[in-house]
Amino acid sequence: MKCAFRIANDGLESIYPYIGDSRKVTIPRDDLITLLLNDDPMHSPPIVSLSEFVQNQVGPLSPGSCVLIYTEETKSKELPLIIHISGWRGTTSLRCYMDRHSTVHLLRLLGGDITKYDINKFKKADGDEEIKDKTDKEVDVKNEEVKEGEGAASQ
């Protein structure tokens, strides 16, 4: 492995100017969304599943850390959105190194599907309701036993 270090996303902007061009990969929107949607490190997206544009850049890149660069295409004179993301080029795969909150934020910016991350914290899980019902029944039975015991003791 020629690149035996891992770049953290937290300090990436500080060291970005010092990273060689050979470790930088320009990535289109669709490929970036594909990488962001994959959160299983054991099943990273294979390089062959990405666009030919990315495959040509990643092909000669040795395994190790890399920087994925997304530049928004704009038709106006405004400055485009440029995102730098730390990544890892495996033997046959490519993946992003980001925390879940940053991943969801970027997916929203890019218009990606966030349904797998969208959790309503106010909605009870299906199993929670069943546990609550069972607990309530147990409490009711114990209350009845206590009332029966009090009635027998007072006589």
Automatic annotation (TrEMBL):
<protein>
    <recommendedName>
        <fullName>RNA cytosine-C(5)-methyltransferase NSUN2-like PUA domain-containing protein</fullName>
    </recommendedName>
</protein>
<dbReference type="InterPro" id="IPR023267">
    <property type="entry name" value="RCMT"/>
</dbReference>
<feature type="domain" description="RNA cytosine-C(5)-methyltransferase NSUN2-like PUA">
    <location>
        <begin position="23"/>
        <end position="111"/>
    </location>
</feature>
<dbReference type="InterPro" id="IPR057286">
    <property type="entry name" value="PUA_NSUN2"/>
</dbReference>
<dbReference type="Pfam" id="PF25378">
    <property type="entry name" value="PUA_NSUN2"/>
</dbReference>
<feature type="region of interest" description="Disordered">
    <location>
        <begin position="133"/>
        <end position="155"/>
    </location>
</feature>
